[in-house]
Specification:
The structure holds 2 protein chains of 2 kinds.
Chain A: H1 10-58, H2 61-73, E1 80-85, E2 91-94, E3 110-116, E4 122-132, E5 138-144, H3 146-196, H4 212-262, H5 266-298, E6 305-308, H6 310-327, E7 331-336, E8 342-345, H7 346-363, E9 369-377, E10 380-387, H8 396-399, H9 419-430, E11 433-439, E12 441-449
Chain B: E1 5-7, E2 12-15, E3 18-20, H1 24-35, E4 41-42, H2 43-50, H3 61-73, E5 82-85, E6 89-92
Antiparallel strand pairs in B: 1-2, 2-3, 4-6, 5-6
The chains are: A alpha+beta, B alpha+beta.
Chain lengths: ~450, ~100
């Protein structure tokens, strides 16, 4: 017969283990109580018999006989044993026929066996003391320790009675808790099944109490929130890509349609085709850029990594963009500070810096200024590109790095809007940081933390 | 007719008797084009080979640099050697 399901849960097994430990504990407790009680009663009996032997021994013979008589007479439970013997062991008085064989006559309390019962067949353990009196008699005083056995029976019985409901409680709690845990797991399971089936809005149930299970559920729910957001973002990026590709392609199509209907000469046809080629080039540039970002994002570092002097890169980019800035009537100022080399891929870093400058020159209106600077920060080198263009609002800052996002104000300026995403991908590969700052105009920084060995 | 002469060690260029004052990058661009004369070079090719620039820039980077080089190589009274191939790219040809 298969075991019921709750038996297999961890909770139930723990409950059983606790019950087992409890039983062992109670048995140890019982042992300890028994041992302590026995010690106490034994030492008390010893004290009593030793004192009695001393008192009786000090008395005169007559008094001694009366005292023994009294002692045995006032003992309804029959726990007292006493005997007065001659030096050669003949009984003079008392309820003992002989001096117990194993009892040493030294005045110290010890364990001894004395015969009891109507014909002396049974022997009983007692604490006894025997001493030789000044007149040569031997006095034996004993006291039965049966009490101990009785007490232990009472204590044991009580503990045993207490153990049964305690064990029952343990097992019941185990069953209850495991059924409860099972119920929660079943609830979570159901939710997860729904999520797996595609319902991303589904969340794990919580009870609003601060227990570990609830905290776990809360964390998982936060993760699910994040995943949901990301999936929506990816969906959004896909839409953006489609949209940004459709615009130039539609324009190409319309242009060619119009050209087919209106172009009369070869030259006119060529002009139409040239425009179409330009439009297709733009679409291709978008695709190339996307592939390039994917390529960088999947690149493992190290391959093309070496010591790179940022100063050379900054100068080179300045050199590359100076004519472009000049043509746009934008002043490009380059400032190169003294910084150590960084560990990275030279081409990729050049591309990143060039992209930032490209962006800055593009968004800066005529007569504006673009500054490209290499700064030596504390523990980091900073490549800062700032411009006097329209800048960016606080809310736009995070979104701006996302693929294809372009600040609304710059929608009219042509460009594929992938620049910052590409820069972000390159920096992520290097473990560098992209900082976008609000200020007059747009300020963007590549922050390269210096790690050990790079300053050499 | 002669195409420009380059002195690769002194990094100087000459067209006939006229010496052309080139920036290092312009020199490299001209050198690259002379090595592939009569071939049409696309913007993407030039970017990748001359500038080691794998991304497609959003500005007309190649055109601006080519424009500067052309103004230095082809002066107004000389027959042009650098030609724009519409929609494709550029080509360096010895003047006919």
């Amino acid at each position: 017969m298969p075991l019921p399901e709750f038996v297999r849960t961890t909770t139930f097994r723990w409950a059983l283990a606790v019950a087992g430990v409890f039983v062992i504990y109670v048995m140890l407790l019982f042992g300890a109580i028994y041992w302590q009680t026995e010690r106490y009663l034994t030492s008390r009996s010893d004290a009593v018999v030793t004192m009695q032997a001393q008192v009786f021994g000090a008395a005169s013979i007559e008094e001694r006989l009366i005292a023994i008589e009294q002692l045995l007479g006032q003992d309804p439970r029959g726990v007292q044993h006493a005997g007065l013997f001659t030096a050669d062991g003949q009984r003079i008085a008392g309820n003992l026929e002989h001096i117990p064989k194993d009892l040493k006559i030294d005045g110290h309390a010890q364990r001894a066996l004395v015969p009891v019962g109507p014909n002396g067949g049974e022997r009983q353990a007692v604490r006894a003391v025997a001493r030789t009196l000044p007149d040569g008699h031997v006095l034996v005083i004993g006291r039965s320790v049966d009490e101990i056995v009785q007490i232990s029976e009472i204590v044991g019985g009580t503990l045993g009675l207490g153990l049964v409901p305690a064990l029952f409680l343990c097992v019941a709690a185990g069953v209850l808790l495991s059924i409860r845990a099972q119920q929660r797991v079943a609830d979570v399971n159901q939710s997860v099944q729904r999520i797996v089936a595609g319902d991303l809005r589904q969340r794990l149930p919580t009870r609003g109490v601060d227990d570990p299970f609830d905290r776990l559920a809360t964390v998982v729910n936060e993760m699910l929130d994040r995943i949901e957001t990301l999936i929506h973002q990816i969906g959004g990026v896909g839409d953006d890509i489609a949209h940004d590709l459709r615009t130039p392609l539609t324009r190409v199509r319309m242009g060619m349609e119009r050209g087919r209907a209106h172009a009369r000469t070869v030259e006119e046809s060529q002009a139409v085709i040239d425009r179409a080629i330009l439009g297709l080039d733009r679409s291709l540039a978008i695709v190339t850029a996307l592939l390039r970002i994917a390529e960088i994002e999947h690149t493992r570092r190290l391959a093309g990594f070496s010591e790179v002097a940022l100063a050379d890169l900054v100068r080179e980019v300045g050199d590359l963009y100076e004519p472009i800035a000049e043509e746009k009537k934008v002043a490009l100022r380059v400032h190169v500070g003294d910084t150590p080399t960084v560990h990275g891929d030279r081409d990729l870093l050049l591309e990143a810096i060039a992209n930032l400058v490209d962006n800055a020159v593009k968004f800066t209106p005529q007569g504006g200024q673009v500054q490209l600077a290499l700064l030596d920060g504390t523990g980091e080198s900073i490549v800062r590109v700032s411009d006097t263009g329209p800048g960016i609002s606080e809310e736009e800052r995070d979104v701006v790095v996302r693929r294809f996002y372009r600040s609304d104000r710059s929608r009219q300026t042509k460009g594929v809007g992938l620049g910052l995403s590409l820069v972000a991908a390159i920096l992520k590969l290097h473990g560098f940081r992209l900082a976008i700052k609000s200020g007059p105009g747009f300020v963007v920084e590549i922050v390269c933390p210096r790690t050990h060995g790079e300053s050499a | 007719m002669l195409i420009p002469e380059l002195d690769l060690i002194a990094r100087t260029a000459k067209r006939g008797d006229r010496s052309i004052d080139l920036l290092p990058r312009e020199f490299r661009l001209l050198e690259y084009m002379m090595q592939r004369k009569d071939q049409v070079l696309t913007r993407a090719m030039l970017l990748e080979e001359v500038w080691k620039y794998k991304f497609v820039p959003q500005t007309n980077l190649v055109d601006v640099h080519m424009g500067r080089l052309r103004r230095k190589v082809d002066e107004s009274d000389e027959p042009p050697m650098i030609h724009n191939v519409r929609g494709v790219g550029f080509v360096l040809r010895a003047p006919a």
